[in-house]
Design a protein that fits this description.
Radius of gyration: 15 Å
Shape: flat
Order of helices and strands: EEEEE
Number of helices: 0
Length: 68
């Protein structure tokens, strides 16, 4: 496992693994609203969180993932 340093404070970040971020959905008053044809898409990202300052960092989990 590669250790990632926080870009804000330099502390080694905690690895929260690969998470899936939903794309194309806005959560607001009245509940979720789906935008256009992007319904149900998600992007896999590597998630790191700094235990000192709370900085949250996402990086592409798979270089072959492309959304246009």
């Amino acid at each position: 496992m590669n250790q990632v340093k926080c870009s804000r404070c330099g502390t080694i970040m905690d690895d929260y693994g690969i998470q899936r971020l939903r794309i194309g959905e806005v959560i607001g008053e009245g509940g979720p609203h789906v935008l256009g044809d992007m319904e149900g898409q998600s992007l896999p990202v590597q998630t790191n969180i700094c235990p000192k300052c709370g900085m949250l960092e996402f990086t592409a989990a798979n270089k072959r993932v492309h959304y246009c």
